Every structure is written in structure tokens, then in C-alpha cells.
Amino acid sequence: MLTLPRIGQGTWDVPESGARMQEAIDALRTGIALGMTHIDTAEMYGNGRAEEIVGEAVSGIPRDSLFVTSKVLPGNATYDGTIAACERSLKRLRMDYLDLYLLHWPSRFPLKDTMRALEQLVRDGKARAIGVSNFDLDDVREAQSYLQNVPLACNQVLYHLRERGIETRLIPYCTSNGIAVVGYTPFGRSRFPRPSSRGGAVLEQIAAKYGKTVRQIVLNFLTRMPHVYTIPKASRSEHARENAGAAGWDLEQADIDAIDEAFPVEDGPLATI
User: Is 45 among the catalytic positions?
Assistant: First the structure.
């Protein structure tokens, strides 16, 4: 099982230049200082630019205090392509190894070859753990079937209040098999509840009770189950501080039940962005 903070930091769509990029770098450093040492990136983000920004942000920070994840694009996910993609990511990050390396989403290439390459990266010391992203239950089982000596450590999937279908089968299966579930886009982008909506009003009431922000309530709720993590992006340091404030305390069961009722689970196929 992975050991990492329940709330980490995502880098999808991170500003790639200028003052806004520097704000994002400062936000990453602020988050790390506040304990959000799990940094998630991918070769797809900015065509590798996000990895370079992460490398700059963590410069001077002891490597063993960080947990860094990256991902191989499905279009690169042949056996040799996966090995080469990881090496390129490490170069951009200025690191010798990744803590976690994932296949970003199912590929047209044989999954068996990709998983074999991921195992080889662990043997070579270039990745400490491996996993997948945007895999539904059957895909997870298939990925597991191809691994011989290294366990599947993680499945990263879309997870927010209006996309909770993973709670019906995927999370229970992953939990019982020692697979961490890392939810991305926890605020749902354009689907974040408005204060004027019924669900938004529930969140506002609960936030007032705890002296927290609505976003802190959301992050706390999404990480209430064992082995479920989330990686919100923070473009400014104040956002990082807000995200960090969602950890280290628990919602009461009555409040969990109220959020459950306001945002019911709808079973269905795995959703992605």
C-alpha cells in the first residue's frame, strides 16, 4: 500500500510561463511545506512542460521527502516506448526515480507489454511503484493479471461529488486488493455545486459548522474512506493553504450522510474528462 498524504497536488493545466507560472511554483512549494508532498504530473501536461515546472518547484527539497507521480501517454505505451517515456520524464523532472508511474489511460497497444515495461522500470530502480489511470474494474483486473512480481499500486480516476460511481464497485475492489484510488478533479470544474443549489446549500451549512470552506468540506468528504486520495491543483499559494486545511480532521457521520443525500451515488461506466 502506498504511503502518501491523503491530499496531494495536481498539475494538469498548470500555467507554463510568466508570472502565473511562478505563482504556481510558489503554490507547489507552499503545499509541500504544509505536508502535501504528493505531486502528480504527466508527460501529457503541457507536452512535458508541467514536469519541468515540478522539477523547478522541488529543486532543493530533499527527494526522499517527496512522493512524485507521472504517467506515460497511451500512444507511447509499447514496451520500449514506456521505458523511453519514463526516462524522458525523469530528465524533465531532474530526478533519478519516480515514486509512482502510471499508464495514463487504456492504450491501443497490448496492455501486457505495457505492464511488463512498468515492472521492468521497478526492477531498474526508475519507479518505486506502478499503476494505471482511468481504468474501470475489468481493466484493473486485466492489468493485475499481467503483473508477475510487482503489485498494482494505484488507479487514478475522476472523482468528485457529481461523479461518485466509483464508490459502488471500483473503490471496494481496489481497497480489498491493496490498490490505492487517487481521485482527480475533485472540484468537478464547471460542475462544482453553486451556493444557490440544494447541494451547495448543504455544503455551506456544513462548512459553517466546522469553520471551514466549502472546498475543504468537499476534499475531506472525498478522502473519508481508507486508501482513497485526491490531487487538487492550486494555482496560487492561498489555494494550496486552503487545500491543506482539508486534512487532519473528520466529518461527523451525520454530515457525511447529509452530503450523501445531497449528492447521491449514480452507478454507471467510469467517467473521464
Answer: yes
